[in-house]
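Regression test case RT-17, inverse folding.

Input:
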């Protein structure tokens, strides 16, 4: 489901976001709700569409950046509110909401958000993320 700033779909998706995300996402040009069908036509549960939807969102983000825009994925939304306000039928799972638009200068953000946006990024160490040969054993990296 895609909402353009100013239309009713956009407003409904925005209303499903947690307040923190609403604060900054309201300035985006598009809000995209990524949904995946949870069951095949015969009713059998399926995991493939969740994977496929994740890949589609990743490609959306890559293409957005290739066009000189910015995309930010969010998990901070209320799926029940999203489903109800957009009339999403049963059997679909809301996975994420993606804000798309031009990246605005950080000084336009409220002070608390500005501080977070401009802070140095810290990544979790690779040894805590990549395992092998067994779960919890850091993957050997290097020569």
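Golden output:
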């Amino acid at each position: 489901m895609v909402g353009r700033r100013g239309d009713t779909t956009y407003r409904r998706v925005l209303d499903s976001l947690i307040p923190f995300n609403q604060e900054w996402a309201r300035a985006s040009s598009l809000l995209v709700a990524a949904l995946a069908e949870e069951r095949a036509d015969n009713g059998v549960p399926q995991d493939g569409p969740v994977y496929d939807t994740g890949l589609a969102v990743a490609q959306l983000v890559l293409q957005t950046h290739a066009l000189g825009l910015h995309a930010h994925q969010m998990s901070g939304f209320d799926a029940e509110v999203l489903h109800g306000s957009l009339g999403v039928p049963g059997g679909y799972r809301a996975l994420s909401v993606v804000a798309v638009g031009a990246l605005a200068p950080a000084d336009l953000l409220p002070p608390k958000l500005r501080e977070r946006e401009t802070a140095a990024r810290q990544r979790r160490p690779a040894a805590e993320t990549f395992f092998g040969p067994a779960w919890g054993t850091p993957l050997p990296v290097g020569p």
